[in-house]
Amino acid sequence: MKQIQLEYFIEVVEQNNFTKAAEKLFISQSALSKSIQSLEKELDTSLFTRDPRELKLTEEGRLVYHYAKDVLNYWHDRTAELFSSLNYKKGTLRFGLPPSAGSVYFSRVLYLYSKEYDHVDLQIFEEKSKKWS
């Protein structure tokens, strides 16, 4: 079981919708569905009752949801404590991306980075490559 799978699962539960969760996570619905199916296969249980009109957690899904929330909260709290203990400094990360590649290839990475390193000021510049020639 991977951290990202738990994050995806939590988002689906909280949005109560695969499409909305995928949009919020900046991934495709099919990638999200595959991740949840992989988690279900690994746990050998169904997490949702799939009805075209309504998405419901199974009893096992409720257990996994509470487990995932606890694990991720613990991880985030301990990580914050570690950075604090190391006197982690706030900083700025500046980088440039071509307009087309930036939104297509890096949106998920940027989203995860900003969640993980919320103390870092991300400054992203979208410029055409000819500007640097």
TrEMBL record:
Keyword Signal: no
InterPro entries in the record: HTH-type_LysR_regulators, LysR_HTH_N, WH-like_DNA-bd_sf, WH_DNA-bd_sf
GO cellular component, one term: cytosol
GO molecular function: DNA binding; DNA-binding transcription factor activity
Record keywords, A-Z: DNA-binding, Transcription, Transcription regulation
UniProt keyword Transcription present: yes
Transmembrane annotation, as ranges: none
Domain HTH lysR-type: 1-58
Family that this chain belongs to: Belongs to the LysR transcriptional regulatory family.
Record-linked PANTHER family: HTH-TYPE TRANSCRIPTIONAL REGULATOR YBHD, NITROGEN ASSIMILATION TRANSCRIPTIONAL ACTIVATOR-RELATED
UniProt protein name: LysR family regulatory protein CidR
